[in-house]
Amino acid sequence: MNTLKKRSTFSPRFLLTFYKKKAVVLLLIFTGLVVTVIAAIGSGPYVISSTPPDGATHVSVNVTSIAANNLYVPEESDYLGGVNNATINHKTVKLQKIVKGAKIDVLGVVQGTGGGDAISFSPTYPLEPSTKYKFTITSGVKSYSGASFAPYEAVFETGAAKTEHTGNLHVAFTKVPIPGTQNRRYTTLTFGPDGKLYALRLDGTIERFKVNHANGMLSRQAEIATLVNKYGERSAIGLTFDPASTADSLVAYVSHSSAGLEKSPEFDSKISRLSGPELEKEQLLVTKLPRSNKDHMINSLVFGPDSALYFSQGSNTSMGAYDSFWQREESLLSGAVLRLDMKKLSKIALPLNVMTSPDQQIINNAPEDKMLMADGTYNPYSASSPLTIYASGVRNAYDLVWHSNGQLYIPANGSAAGGNTPASVAGTRRPNGTFYNGPKIPATSSVVVMSRWILRKLFRYDLVNALFPSVSATVQNDWLFRVNPLKPVGYFGHPNPLRGEYVVNRGYTDNLNYPASVMPDANYRGSAYNFGLNKSPDGVLEYKSNAFNGALKGKLLVTRFSGGSDIIILEPGSMVKNPKVTSAGSDDSVYDIVRATTGMGASGVTGMSGFANPLDIVEDVKTGNLYVSEFNRQDDPEKAAQITLLRVKDLPEPGTVMAQKPNKKVQAHTSGQGS
Fold this sequence. Notes:
By secondary structure, the protein is mainly beta. The two termini are 50 Å apart. It is built from 7 helices and 37 strands. The chain has 3 domains: 1-37, no CATH class; 44-157, Immunoglobulin-like (Sandwich), CATH 2.60.40; 173-670, TolB, C-terminal domain (Neuraminidase, 6 Propeller), CATH 2.120.10. The strands form 9 sheets. It has a 5-stranded mixed β-sheet. The chain is globular.
């Protein structure tokens, strides 16, 4: 092995021949060295790589996600692409601690993704220092066609435990499951103008709860089935109340699509307005919004300071071009944050049909003063159009929040490996009204990673890394984006060829399949915070109460659905409007995140971890209590989909001598678990 590692420094020339059903390495030729190997490898699905990678050392004990995020799944006609999430469970996916040759199962949450493009394990507790772990995926994991994944193992070793500095937040919560909410999948939790908590279920039913502010407990008062009665079972995500709504005149808005998260119809997303004492009246406002083949659709809704309705529209692809996982092209309004001008909407006949054209020439010639394109489809670029693109290139943001500092914060889910990016086309109209005349951007494809996987089967991984560094996986980070309303529409990194935006995120930095010369798009805005890989940041709020002597006030709380299964606390550099930021040209970086505190980890906040896929979060501003919807995507029998109360925990002032035994207090804090 040492000889091979030494020879890996030679400059390689290689020939790889791939057959359609079998991949066969015929010949590898190195300068001064000829090695002939014949190896046939099956054409079924397999894991190319995972994070932490096989053989990694000094891995943090606070790693929140161990993920196979670089997969190969052959596209089969009449079948969905990617992993069948129903086959992912604690029997087929394991993380094990290795002690003197023995393997001990680690407690945690296993899960897939909506795109079927990753398989991950989130440990419930921090890992042990200086310990070997094995991440295993068995042949019990299958694609939708029923093909078994090739068994996969990755062994890594943790480093020494380190003290984390997370801002010394003196806060803690007590976790209390709300009785009667178990095994119900809630997608949005929000308070109405009547002081009641409204919980939207995925199927479209809304539950109304009375809140006991003394202890935080909820009592169900009603189930509102207005959407279900009219449309049948739905896939409903967003629920928000009109700012002008009152306790005596309820008006709410719901985003919804047809039921199911697989083989979904295109242009299937809608927005409805509900009104009346029981929200029993429904009016369809917007129809024919885009929808992906899977779980990317219209997401959460929020009113802005300008009284317009803002929402995220999920992408149709992994990285901008058709791929075998998502099996659908982007449309003009997909992968973006959209703005619905309610004043303009009130002047037209409802519902507003926003189906868009796939014809690039039609789009390029969009009229400036007409709501419809030449072919009769919707034109989001007209000054008279109620629905416009507010932030372009936001791949899939479940939730968004307008902060009191004036900024719009958007946690967004990045792509796993396996996606394809589009090639540039000069002259394509862009959301800011210009036409693309930038550098020529080549298309990139996930196909190139196959050669790396095959070579790993023949040689040590170290050798392959040295020989083929340019074909590493292109897993994309999850980001917190920030939109400054003083600036014109910006681009946030998810390509859409119909909008003349081609470079994924930061170019070569994030996609090594690009030439090294590929830079970010000229209109790329960057991020306010990098969540890292495989976290799936979803629900977000600005904490507004003065609980804990104001320690959380103004900070962002974000649920991490996958990596961590916890809540992360983010502190903007300025939590009020900065008087120096007065124009589009002002330096507004003061609004970016300067400090992060996780729920999980050795220094995690008590009561903010150990969830079963936390999806949405809402605050009772009267008490500071939080309510979290746990989704339990994989139906883990040891967990439950439910609403969980995070009750503000009374804490002694910092420096106060505690009466309890100190070892118990320390254990409760360092575990990051609720008490």
